[in-house]
Structure formats: structure tokens, C-alpha cells
Amino acid sequence: MTTTTTLVRGTELRARFAVALAEMYGAEVPAYTTLVEVSRAVNADVAAARGADAERLGSLERVTAERHGAIRVGSPRELEQVGRVFAAFGMHPVGFYDLRDASASSVPVVSTAFRPVDPAELAENPFRVFTSMLAVDDARFFDAPTRQRLERFVEERHLFSDELLALADRAAAEGGLPTAEADELLRLATDAFRLSTEPVDRAWYTHLEKISAVAADIGGVPATHINHLTPRVLDIDELYRRMSERGITMIDEVQGPPAWEGPDVLLRQTSFRALAEERTFREADGSVVTGALRVRFGEVEQRGIALTAAGRDLYDRLVAEVDARRAGLVPGHESDGHENDSQRTRVEVALDVWRRHLPRAEADLVLAGLACGEVRLVEGALLPACEADRSFSLAALVEAGAVVVDPIVYEDFLPRSAAGIFQSNLTDAGTKDVELDGADYDADRLSAILGKTVLDPIELATAQMQRSVDALSAQLKTPITH
């Protein structure tokens, strides 16, 4: 008689992991629970008002369950280990984000995000964890004595137990774990990101905090922790208004693209301000006292359509134009009716810039080669005439109503927006010696640290779009031209 062992697969492990972290974080930061409640209410109201259009970028069930977490680690060793933990949940490193020069404040970290990459896995549960590593070797932030002490401090701590790492490696290799081992993996992984009760060395923390509050939160504490857990909302401006009505202090503005009448692109984010949390400190005389730190905040996001490489280049140029107009380096455009943009908000100027440069429809963004969408044939629709070379033009198929374009959701992050939220939650800009050279980091260096390739988010979305075009071409038995 043979027995079979039922595995808890990576998809279920990931979903359970997201829920476990949410329950833990909600207990640690009660305002997070309020944020989730308001997000759910906004999503339900938007779905009721907009119907099917509200689910263009994901089902209501997916959007409401969706979360991204954020953690910070202090060394390549810790980053490699956390990559092993997330691999157990079917989460892969995607994107390289350099936050060191993304804001005026001192944010000495480089980041990647661990997430599913297969569209079916994303549809099941798109849990992501934005993971930042302290760039200890960047001399612009850390002098030699501080760097040496930081390296010793981080090397002496152990964020992840040998048991957790062994279970994670096994789950990644086998695609899951038997029930008992799966439960233990989830318990150990969740506990690894729980806020530590061990006293913080006040003098060391204060020294790092003068350089960067983010550095202190990474290298001045004995363990890592969930820095924020982020729900997704369908109308971030309405959420901002409702949170403010409840008396919760939000950061000054929504980060990322402006709200406008055209398609949402990439990602919009905001947060409530970091709250004082009780912590214990060890003083210089060895005594332990109670104090408070403000390092964790409640972030929320609204996701839009993924852009192609050309679309992302255009987006970056639009952001630069907004900055230049607000700085008075270029005049406002006469068609906007605003010649002096220096007195206007970033969002107001961005709205004018968006209207001048971007198409007003998702399909037009895709057909212009700026955004990523999946194409599908409308059953029973009449096809347009073929081109002279016997191919079909995608634009002609869409114009004829024979093909529709479904937007591909942007699953990733924006370094400037992330740094903007960090900066909005800091009370001190910190220090950075801009006369010195920074340490070199890129996706290849993070890949070497992790022992696996950091994937390119634009390539992933573009490949997804191309697969749908190839499938359409096979269905029509004719080449499709863009």
C-alpha cells in the first residue's frame, strides 16, 4: 500500500503568508486596520459606480485582497537569505531600484521586489515584498568608522534561523511542503518579520539617525520587521479624502502620476504619516528605558497599466518636464493657460503635461507602442481587409472592433515615489557628502548577491503582451503587425 503526501503549494503558501503578515502587522499598527477598512469600502463603492470598468486592471476580489509589504536588510548576506525565504512562496526578484539619489533626503538603500512573475500566479495572489538593502559601502553616507561598526553589527545578528532557511529551500525546490512543515514555515517566516522587543542601543541608533533615519531603522536595531503593508485601492484620491476625514494625518500628496481623465499608468501611492511606536532603549549606563520611534507608516497604492520601454522613457521625460516647469527652468505651455508654474503644485502641473502628451484611451496607448496590453479576438466579429503582405495590422483589427485590448497591470514600483514616501515620513533629511563617489550598484550586482537573476519588469510585461499577439496570429493563421 502506498501513501501520497499532499503538498501545500507555493501559491497557497504565498496567500497564507500575506494573511499572516497582515494579521501580525494589524496588531502592531492598528491604523493599518483602518486603512484596510477604508480601502475595502472605497473599492466596493467604485465597483458599484463603475461596474465592469472598475475591474479593467484586476478583479475586485484580487484588488481587495492584494498587498505589498516592505522590509529592509543590512547586508548582502541578509539579502541573499531573504531571497531564499521568499522563493519558498513563489516570489522572484523583479526590478532594480536605486533610492540613494531619488529624493533630497538621505536614503542610502538599493532595492528589488520579490513577487510572482507568471500571470496566472499573479491572478491567484500577487503578494509582493519591496526589499531594500543598506548600501553600507557608499562613502557619501558612511565614514570609515561608521561603516566598520555597521558591518560588525549586521554580521553579528541573525534574522533568519537555520530551520527557516532549510524549510524555505525545500519548499522552493519541491514546489511546496507537507501540511505540518508548511505550517512551521509560515510560523517561522512570519515571526522573522515581527517587531523585536529587544532593547535598542540608543547612542548607536541616534548616531545612525543623524545620517539617515532609514539607515537607523536597518542597522540600528537587532532585527528586521515589516516597515509597511500596503493595500490596493481603485480610487486613491477618494481614499486620501476619507482617511483625512477620520482624522488620520496623511502625507502631503499622492506620489506618482496625476489623476486625470485618461488611463492610469504605472503606480500612484500615498500613506498616512509614521506613528510613534513604543520601543525599549538601552542607555549608555546599561539601564533600559521606554521610549518611542517613528519609522513605520501606512501606505496604499493604485495600480495602472504597464508601460513599454518607449512608454517608460516618455514617462521619465514628462516627470522631468514637470520638475523643470515648477523650477522655472522652462515656461508653461500656452495651451495650458499657465505661463508661471512655479506657484502651482506638482500634481497641477503634471495634469497639464499628461494631457498634452498621452493618449486618452488604453488601446491608443498600446497601439502607440507606449503601454502593454493583451489582445483577444471578438467572437463573430468581421475582420478588416488584410494588408498587401497578407498580414493584419493590429490597429486595423482594433479599429474594426474585431480585437479588443485588455490592459496589463503594472506589478512593480517607482523609485522616486518610494523615496518620496520615505522622505514625507522623515523628520530630518539626514546627511550625504555629495563630493564623494557613491558605490556602484545595479541589477547585475544584486543578481550576483542573490544567486539568481533580477528580472526586468518591462521585459516581463512586454513578453506577456507578445504572447497574446502570437496567440492571435496563430488563431487567425496570419502574421500580426504592430
TrEMBL record:
Keywords: Dioxygenase, Iron, Oxidoreductase. Pfam families: HGLS (PF07063). Its cofactor is Fe(2+). Its EC number is 1.13.11.93. GO terms for molecular function: dioxygenase activity. It is an enzyme of class 1 (oxidoreductase). CDD domains: VOC_YdcJ_like (cd16348). The keyword Cytoplasm does not apply. Belongs to the 2-oxoadipate dioxygenase/decarboxylase family. PANTHER family: 2-OXOADIPATE DIOXYGENASE_DECARBOXYLASE (PTHR39479:SF2), PTHR39479. This is 2-oxoadipate dioxygenase/decarboxylase. It comes from Quadrisphaera granulorum.
